[in-house]
Amino acid sequence: MLAERTKKIKPSPTLAVDSRAKELKAKGMDVVNFGVGEPDFDTPEHIKEAAIKAIKDGFTKYTPVGGIDELKEAIIEKLERDNGLKYEKANILVSSGAKHSLYNIAQALFGPGDEVIIPAPYWVSYPDQVLLNDAQPVIVETREEYDFMLHPEVLKEKITSRTKAIILNSPSNPTGFIYTKKALEQIAEIALKHNLYIISDEIYEKLIYDGEKHISIASLSEEVKNKTIVVNGLSKSHAMTGWRIGYAAGPQEIIKTMTTIQSQSTSNPTSIAQKAAVAALRGPQDCVEQMRLEFEKRRDYLVKELNSIPGVSCKMPKGAFYAFPNVEKILGKNGINSSMDLSIYLLEKALVAVVPGSAFGAEGYVRISYATSMENISKGINRIRKAVEELR
Ligand SMILES: *Cc1c(COP(=O)(O)O)cnc(C)c1O
Questions:
Q1: Domains 4-42+287-389 and 57-282 belong to one CATH topology
Q2: Where is coiled-coil annotated (predicted)?
Q3: Ligand 1 centroid vs 234 CA: distance in angstroms?
Q4: Which of 11, 110, 286, 326 could lock 135 by a disulfide, CB 3.0 to 4.6 Å apart?
């Protein structure tokens, strides 16, 4: 008999679409995959070189559980430089990816009876990580008209004596929207008043367009910082998804507990990948800017094309590499009644993989990743247009 908690969770739905698309591809079908959640760029050369050097130098043994000092120092420099946040090494934990850092947080903070506020559309792992720790996710809807930000009045209504934390993600996967300073201030004020922790997933920080600026909620004040755990990593900023390096920065006591948890599960993140991460953080950053510019070009093209498809409307996202078009007007035609039906139709009929909004707790939308070439975007969008026009 499997443990009770395993009955509450499901495999990541984004990975499910991805694997069906890959299945069709393996059969020789020419699938355009808009389901991907990782940069299509190669890891920059100087980062790879640092890892090769680490191997050759024999840097291939266990390291301290929470990461090597050199990497923690590079992370501290980054947080101060980019976010205006001052931390000590005791405030930092390096994990095997940001997802792992988030899981360590869930283990350290959540338990039976706790409620955790998660604005929808949400990243798929948040609710399941809460459930795996026997706590209750409280899904709070956001609105397209308010750029999918958590509204302070709606937040207030959802807080109970059991509420333990809020999980924020800006720039957001799946919507691509970012929180304004004002919205963050309003949320932070409520969080402080009710003594809630704020978990701030900032993994898409480097992918922001139109001159907008990323603000870490922890930077609002010392009080807010003391209740916030910032999560970030190299996967999206430096095209390093496979290296598995992410980190958390927060109050010492929490980081210490998370480190103990990590010591009893995975131990240190890969030694070689840690050296690569040091090179990524301390080396030249023009590679990051090049990728950002390319994403911005694709976004502009994709969103313009999406809006020219009858029944589809897409607000211009400000960050990450996803468009989150509203497809409500298409639903109801030809027995296509949900974003899942539409995703299946597009994959099987038009050979285009998108992720249904329902996977992120938001019916009436689909997520389209533009972490793929201009050529693929152009081909995929034409197929979507044709398939949608055939629906009556
Ligand atoms: C990709 C992603 C992560 C996980 O990143 P890793 O560092 O590769 O584990 C975390 N949060 C969001 C919102 C993501 O999209």
A1: no
A2: none
A3: 9
A4: 110
Length of the chain: 392
Name the β-bridge partners of 32. Answer: 352
What CATH code would you report for 57-282?
Answer: 3.40.640.10
Most informative mutation of 123, 234, 240, 369 for ligand 1 (most atoms within 8 A of CB): 123
- Ligand 1: does its nearest atom lie under 6 Å from the Cβ of 246? yes
245 confidence band (pLDDT: 50, 70, 90): very high
Question: Using a 6 Å cutoff on CB, does residue 238 contact ligand 1?
Answer: no
Q: Which atom of ligand 1 is nearest to the CA of 234?
A: 7
Query: pLDDT tens-digit profile of 316-328?
Result: 999 999 999 999 9
Whole-angstrom CA distances from 94 to 144, 161, 242, 244 are 34, 32, 15, 10
Is the minimum distance from the CB of 205 to ligand 1 under 6 angstroms? Answer: no
pLDDT in tens, 285-297: 999 999 999 999 9
What global pTM score does this model have?
Answer: 0.97
Q: What is the CATH number assigned to the segment(s) 4-42+287-389?
A: 3.90.1150.10
Atom of ligand 1 nearest to the CA of 102: 10
Angstrom distance (rounded) from CA 154 to CA 158: 7
The atom of ligand 1 lying closest to the CA of 201 is 11
Domain residues of the chain, as ranges? 4-42+287-389, 57-282
Query: pLDDT of 8-33, one tens digit each?
Result: 887 776 677 778 888 999 999 999 99
